[in-house]
Design brief:
Blueprint lengths: L2 H18 L5 H12 L3 H13 L3 E6 L2 E6 L9 H37 L3 H27 L6 H33 L6 H8 L15
Antiparallel strand pairs: 1-2
Length: 214
């Protein structure tokens, strides 16, 4: 890194430590400033060690880790009343921040609802499409009502009743014929198929028909 970049890193880190006025490790400072300023880890370590050697920041060893913080001698003494006043301001500002965050959250919800809602143009088109669809169904209903080939409920019931009766008779006659053929075939020397061919009987199976469910 060039001397100008070294000097820039030293100035930025010194200002950061003074502004924050709290203890930091070199890793903390690197992580907090790297994205904004692009300092490398080596440059941060070098700058903080230089600041400590120059007495511009204080350095303390905690275990195997060095901690750096602003020189408190440069700051004016603060009375208890001033500290209480600052605490009161901090509490007031924290309350305002919380209120602002809640307001932002509510606005985000409203924006999300608005983005998911239909626009006026889309609603007008949707209404127009629905009107056209209703008109088509209305025309179909009109044609159905004006038709002369309607089947009354009584006529429909009569057809179903007759169908049921015919199917019942069909089963009855098929059973009678089957019993009769079985009796004849007991003394018939040939096969059942040959008997049906000689007599000219066509079964439901031959014609591929089945008795409907009634």
């Amino acid at each position: 890194m060039s001397k100008s970049k070294d000097a820039a890193a030293v100035a930025v880190i010194l200002k950061y430590l003074n502004d924050q006025n709290r203890p930091y490790s070199t890793q903390d400072v690197f992580g907090n400033l790297q994205r904004e300023h692009g300092f490398g880890k080596t440059a941060v370590v070098k700058a903080m060690e230089q600041l400590a050697q120059q007495g511009k920041v204080k350095e303390k060893l905690y275990g195997k880790q060095k901690i750096y913080f602003a020189d408190q001698a440069q700051f004016p003494c603060v009375s208890d009343s001033e500290i209480k006043s600052l605490d009161s301001q901090i509490a007031e500002l924290s309350s305002k921040v919380q209120t602002a965050q809640q307001s932002c959250k509510q606005m985000e919800i409203e924006i999300k609802d608005l983005n998911s809602s239909m626009t006026t143009e889309a609603m007008v088109k949707e209404i127009d499409d629905l009107k056209k669809e209703c008109a088509i169904h209305t025309e179909k209903l009109k044609k159905i009502k004006s038709a002369t080939n309607h089947v009354t409920p009584a006529e429909k019931e009569k057809v179903y009743s007759e169908k049921k009766q015919y199917c019942k008779e069909w089963r009855k006659r098929k059973r009678m014929a089957t019993d009769l053929f079985d009796a004849i075939l007991e003394g018939y020397p040939k096969s059942k198929k040959q008997f049906f061919e000689e007599v000219g009987v066509e079964t439901d199976e031959d014609l591929k028909v089945t008795i409907p469910d009634a």
